[in-house]
Amino acid sequence: YPRQHAPETHLSEFNLTEIEAMLGSYTKVLFIRDPFQRLISTFMQGMGSSPSFSSFVQDILDTGQHNASLSWKPLVSLCRPCLVQYDYVVMFGFFRQELGHLLQRAGLPVDSLLPEFTDTQVQWTYSWLSEQMFSELSLQQKKQLSRFYRWDLSAFPFSSSLLAD
User: Fold this and answer.
1) Is residue 28 in a domain?
2) How does it sit in the membrane (predicted)?
3) Rounded Cα–Cα distance for residues 85 and 61 (Å)
4) Domain ranges, residue 127
5) Is 75 exposed, middle or buried (0-12, 13-18, 19+ CB in 10 A)?
6) What is the pLDDT of residue 9?
7) Number of domains in the chain
8) What is the pLDDT of residue 118?
9) What is the pLDDT of residue 5?
10) Do the beta carbons of residue 152 and residue 74 sit within 8 Å?
11) pTM exceeds cut of 0.90
């Protein structure tokens, strides 16, 4: 988009006409990840100060969505999929095939630009880890997390998410 703006400029700082022009001129790609896997990743990276995953989840639930960190805030509130027509939605765990398709569509050489991905191993590891961490939560916490992420679970194909039940 021709208007000069700083890298930290938020879309909300533009007027509606400028927003529509920008969004119409860009290829919009949204990267998504199962909300429960995002929580696990955040916890494993030590971004929460809680000693256990269960207490970490409880801290998040007590804080609520409005004060949530970007690391675990529901995706729908961050990327506004109802307002923005994304050209591509790339799901964590399918990076190699989906990024290859994107590069090919952009006319770029696929093999030389794609890093080595271990999607299958990552999916298996997160599946196992998710089950372990999920079993640490109380029934009430599981229900509250499902409610916390209800719009993400409705908007995106997270059918295998433990929170979808």
Assistant:
1) yes
2) Single-pass type II membrane protein
3) 30
4) 11-155
5) buried
6) 74
7) 1
8) 58
9) 54
10) yes
11) no
For the four alpha carbons of 32, 149, 160 and 137, in that order, the dihedral sign comes to positive
Task: Answer whether residue 146 is part of any domain.
Answer: yes
Scanning the structure block, which residue is given the tokens 């009430």? 140
Could you give the residue ranges of the DSSP H alpha helices within the chain?
Answer: 16-25, 35-44, 53-63, 75-79, 95-105, 110-113, 119-136, 139-148, 150-155
For the chain, 165 residues long, the average pLDDT of each consecutive 10-residue run is: 60 84 85 90 83 93 88 88 84 74 78 62 73 94 95 88 84
- According to DSSP, the β-strands at 88-91 and 29-32 are parallel
DSSP, collapsed to helix, strand or coil, labels residue 93 as coil
| 121 falls within a domain | yes
- Rounded to whole angstroms, the Cα distance separating 68 from 89 reads 23
